[in-house]
């Protein structure tokens, strides 16, 4: 559309591939305050690395000194030394393991909470663009992958790095020529690791994405189980789930294949180092340059040198899994909300509820405008109604008033304050919303009425239920207000759900009420009970009523007829009928001549 401002879509900033170091830096950021545990872990790791030298030294001393001199009296001390060393190794490994696990769990705890808190701060548009199952997978499965890294992988990497450095230095001191020949195999290991690491990470990222698809399917189907049963699509959904599970299986097999190639190559290079020591070491012994005990100790040190490499080849899977998960987590953490709150945003006091749209243009997608140069006003303490066909933009108006979205052009004010200048929570605290799709949580009736008003007393909750015509049906349950309503309120009828929603809005005591098709899906009896409840809700408040049923808005103070994002008619019920326009056409469709004298339902301020 010419001249329409395109909506700027803020994409997530993806971290660079190969960002393992940044992953460790972020994890360290979460644990830097736990210096006592980190100190215990560091001391334990150093102790383990030093103790690793003891047993090879005892072996060398036994072979070179005790056996040739037949020192039977010292054998018991050698055995005791080995046992004490083993006990100390077990103790320090335990301490380092517990310390690193505690540190790691704290990091994961903080990261998961940070991720969830950040998700809560994102705008509704973000959730429109992303599937619930994928977000659930990132908070649970992906963070769980990082938990493996920080709980065991990080400790293994730190310990092995320190041990490798210490052993390599000592071996160079023992026989630098032989050690350099052995170390010549390590560049090949490093190149092999680099070659496979990128591919393994890509494979694990594919696994994480396939897990997200499985989670998405589970979330979609389990939350729509009644729809599936009603249309007998169990077999169809089972086949779709099997397809996603098959993709996950294949992704795992691809990762296993890479690991099955990588690990034997590392083992082969390790055995090449062993062969070098055996050949050259044996030659030195035969030439008299080394003792048998020295070459035995050297072989033991070679094992200590190779073990970190061998373990790292296995830890690489954890690291790359974690790196793939980390990328998906950072994608969320670096996503910025499109609806931003200013640093010095105003905290609203109790408002009158005068809402004005000034030349507002909005589109969910740039090519499909919903509102164009739209002007609109809600007068304080008055009931304002909007009617129009589906897709005319009625619900979009409510989304903009609650600032779920920001317009691309124009300004919306409440009591003269532009919405972007107001703290979001203080703005939304002024509003109560009752919609056709009632959102209820799995819990008790009391929990759902008091949701958003957690400090309400029992008397206040019951008063709100009375005002919403809900107290009678609530007390008919054996547990009354403590009755469980099931997931999304499945144990309640449509009218009961709606009255719970109205009670929740009454308890909140908002200044601005939004009714979005609140009675369109109800039977006549339920609609009458709810309309009576709405009398209490709308009294002396600014009200915006969106409805298909004209019976619910005939006594509104002002009615707007919306068509394709534009107001085409405005006035009272009687004046709009006199205009002989769109409103009258809608009225005649809903009220044939023989029904026109039936008393209208009531959604009005104070029911005067």
TrEMBL record:
Entry keywords, A to Z: ATP-binding, Cell membrane, Membrane, Nucleotide-binding, Transmembrane, Transmembrane helix, Transport
Entry's localization field: Cell membrane
Domain of life: Bacteria
Pfam families: ABC_membrane, ABC_tran
UniProt xrefs under SUPFAM superfamilies: ABC transporter transmembrane region, P-loop containing nucleoside triphosphate hydrolases
Region forming the signal peptide: none
Entry membrane topology: Multi-pass membrane protein
Residues annotated as domain ABC transporter: 355-589
GO molecular-function term, one example from the UniProt record: ATP binding
Residues that span the membrane, as ranges: 35-55, 75-95, 154-173, 179-197, 265-282, 288-305
Coiled-coil zones: none
Family: Belongs to the ABC transporter superfamily.
GO cellular component, one term: plasma membrane
Protein name as it appears in the record: ABC transporter permease
SMART domains in the cross-refs: AAA
PROSITE patterns in the record: ABC_TM1F, ABC_TRANSPORTER_1, ABC_TRANSPORTER_2
All copies of domain ABC transmembrane type-1, residue ranges: 39-321
């Amino acid at each position: 559309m010419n001249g329409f401002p395109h909506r700027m879509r803020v994409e997530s900033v993806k971290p660079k591939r190969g960002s393992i170091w940044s992953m460790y830096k972020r994890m360290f950021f979460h644990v830097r305050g736990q210096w006592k545990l980190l100190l215990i872990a560091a001391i334990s790791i150093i102790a383990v690395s030093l103790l690793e030298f003891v047993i090879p030294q005892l072996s060398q001393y036994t072979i070179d000194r005790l056996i040739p001199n037949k020192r039977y009296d010292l054998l018991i001390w050698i055995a005791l030394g080995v046992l004490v060393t083993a006990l100390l190794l077990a103790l320090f490994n335990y301490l380092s393991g517990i310390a690193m696990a505690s540190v790691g769990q704290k990091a994961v705890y903080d990261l998961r909470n940070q991720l969830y808190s950040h998700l809560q701060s994102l705008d509704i548009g973000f959730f429109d663009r992303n599937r619930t199952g994928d977000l659930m997978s990132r908070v649970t499965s992906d963070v769980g992958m990082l938990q493996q890294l920080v709980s065991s992988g990080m400790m293994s990497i730190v310990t092995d790095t320190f041990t490798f450095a210490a052993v390599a230095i000592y071996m160079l001191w023992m026989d630098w020529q032989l050690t350099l020949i052995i170390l010549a195999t390590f560049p090949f290991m490093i190149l092999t690791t680099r070659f496979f690491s990128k591919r393994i990470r890509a494979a694990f990222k594919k696994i994480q994405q396939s897990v997200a698809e499985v989670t998405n399917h589970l979330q979609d189907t389990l939350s729509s189980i009644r729809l599936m049963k009603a249309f007998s699509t169990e077999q169809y959904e089972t086949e779709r789930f099997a397809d996603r599970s098959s993709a996950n299986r294949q992704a795992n097999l691809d990762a296993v294949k890479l690991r099955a190639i990588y690990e034997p190559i590392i083992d082969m290079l390790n055995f090449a180092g062993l062969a070098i020591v055996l050949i050259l070491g044996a030659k030195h012994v035969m030439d008299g340059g080394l003792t048998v005990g020295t070459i035995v100790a050297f072989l033991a040190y070679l094992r200590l040198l190779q073990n970190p490499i061998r373990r790292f080849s296995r830890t690489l899977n954890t690291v790359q899994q974690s790196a793939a998960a980390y990328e998906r987590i950072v994608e969320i953490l670096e996503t910025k909300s499109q609806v931003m709150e200013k640093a010095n945003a105003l905290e609203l006091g109790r408002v009158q509820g005068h809402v004005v749209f000034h030349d507002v243009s909005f589109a969910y997608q740039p090519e499909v405008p919903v509102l164009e140069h739209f002007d609109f006003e809600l007068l304080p303490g008055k009931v304002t109604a909007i009617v129009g066909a589906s897709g005319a933009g009625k619900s979009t108006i409510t989304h903009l008033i609650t600032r779920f979205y920001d317009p691309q052009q124009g300004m919306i004010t409440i009591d003269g304050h532009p919405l972007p200048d107001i703290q979001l929570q203080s703005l939304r605290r002024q509003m109560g919303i009752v919609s056709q799709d009632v959102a209820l949580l799995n819990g008790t009736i009391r929990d759902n009425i008091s949701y958003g008003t957690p400090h309400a007393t029992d008397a206040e909750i019951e008063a709100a239920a009375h005002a919403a015509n809900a107290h009678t049906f609530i007390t008919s349950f054996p547990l009354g207000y403590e009755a469980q309503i099931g997931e999304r309120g499945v144990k309640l009828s449509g009218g009961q759900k709606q009255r719970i929603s109205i009670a929740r809005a009454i308890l909140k005591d908002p200044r601005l009420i939004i009714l979005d098709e609140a009675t369109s899906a109800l039977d006549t009896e339920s609609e009458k009970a709810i309309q009576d409840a709405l009398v209490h809700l709308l009294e002396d408040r600014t009200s915006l009523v969106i409805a298909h049923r004209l019976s619910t808005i005939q006594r509104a103070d002002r009615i707007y007829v919306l068509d394709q994002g534009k107001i085409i008619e405005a006035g009272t019920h009687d004046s709009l009928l006199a205009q002989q326009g769109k409103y009258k056409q809608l009225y005649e469709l809903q009220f044939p001549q023989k029904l026109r004298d039936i008393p209208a339902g009531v959604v009005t301020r104070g029911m005067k």
